[in-house]
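ingest -> fold -> write
write: protein_1
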Amino acid sequence: MIKLLVAVFCLGILMLSTDVLPQSTPPQSTRPVKLHGKLSVKGSQLIDEHGNPIALNGVSLGWHCWWPRFWNKQCVTWLATDWKISVVRASLGVDPKGGYLDKTAWSKQTLDTVVQAAIDNDLYVIIDWHTEGTKLAEAKAFFTEMATKYGKHPNIIYELLNEPVKQTWPQVKDYSTEVIKAIRAVDPNNIIIVGNPHWDQDIDQPAKDPIAGQTNIMYTVHFYAASHGKWLRDKCDAAMKKGIAIFITESAAMQASGNGALNVTEWQAWVDWCAKNKVSLITWSISDKDETCSMLLPTAAGDGNWKDTDLKESGKRTREMLRKAAEK
């Protein structure tokens, strides 16, 4: 009788524990940073702390100054648990009205919320200085502050410049070298991502003339599948053969304008190429603008918990892709 009572008591405790624990919370062993730890670059490959090649998959939040309603812990948690992302890109709008230069304190507070939410959810997070210009003094001060505040966390990835448009590679290289030095004075190890000319499509230029004397440096490529096809993947292949590491920090299936129909065939070719080459892939964007590349409809709540009816076609396909990638 005593053994029976003990068994019933233990079963009751187990059932109570199951009811109390949130069912959407992934087990510790499957959380990205818990599983992979500190990242580094070896040759042209991103690797985890166990020395294994790794490709991160995630989404970019839209400009913080235009879609702040999605910059909260609940939204990041939803993306972690339902969309199964391993990385989130926090695109800090620098130049627009209401952006970092205009509302600095509020902008940093908004960014802090997302970075801390990523850390709490055991995600990698890209701190993205989202501008086309090379504002060296402001960038050095910003990244020094971010490295001081967050550099101890293995979750952190720095993106120095969104999409250079008018700058040459020597100009982008000089700018990036100075900002890298500022970060490395505080944070010697976390990954740093460098842009390149022509909206991050001239990856052949840093491949010929990479930044020297630094470790854990990667270079970004941005693609929009209806505009950028095999020719850009060929440039990526050639660049990686020369020994530089690529991290695709922005992509989507439509035209480079952010509008137009999805080219699903070409987008899938990119997704397959990234999986084959262990290249990290981030899709643009978590926002509800009236454009094809914004993945949400205005009905989507700011804190997540979205239904299929809240997602545009790009959002539905991206969610499906991310969930499949997480299963592998």
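write: protein_2
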Amino acid sequence: MQHPMKERLFQLLLIVACALVVASMVSTVACGSDGSTSTTAGTAQTGADTASGGSDAGASTSVRFKTEDGVTLSGKLFGSGSSGVVLAHMYPADQTSWYSTAKRLAQEGHLVLTFDFRGYGDSEGTKEIELIDKDVASAIQAIADAGATEVALIGASMGGTAGLVATAQTTPIPVTGVATLSAPVEFKGLSAEEAVPKLTVPLLFIAAEDDAGADGARQLQELSGSGAELKLLPGNEHGTELLEGAHADEIWGLLSGFLERVLP
């Protein structure tokens, strides 16, 4: 017969062991799930997430898509619907500079795509600025694949120049208008000089008077003829910095009004 003290000790050890097993299982369950989700569509990886850039960034879906010359670009989709807006970033920034604007446009009912040019952010390739009009063209295709039936382009600095060049080419869905913030006519081998006179869509050129972008805006309006709208405001902010400066509300009103006209 087993001694009572040994039997009692055995029971206590068994209880402690069981408690440790239960605690380990609870810890595993609690730490093993973070609530994140992701999906895959075709060969392009997509996933719901919260874009970096603070609380104004909002929910977005990560997308990856290829240019005609085989470079894989990284982007984010905000909102939904058939009314598309592509936002092209300035030098030397990346798509994060557009996140707060993208969320705001999505709240107004647009499907919005931000993306990193080749060699920037999470996109592949090297920083061949003379080729980034191809990146805008592939972004137009990407937003069309996401459900847009028409699209307006808004580009900051070199992103605006690239948008003008891309619009002069054949696009998968109609580009109904192009707005630029501080865009130059030419930058590091990328030139809109030949493209702009061919454009028949509404154009809006915005810049700060004390910034080099003002000269570019004036030159772009001259190239486009009388059909383009030019707006110069006080200050020296450049590109997306205009949306954070003293005249941010006025500039937002210009962009919002422009989109209402070209994406009714």
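write: annotation protein_2
The longest helix spans residues 4-31.
Confidence is low (pLDDT under 50) at residues 1-7, 12-45, 50-57.
pipeline exit 0
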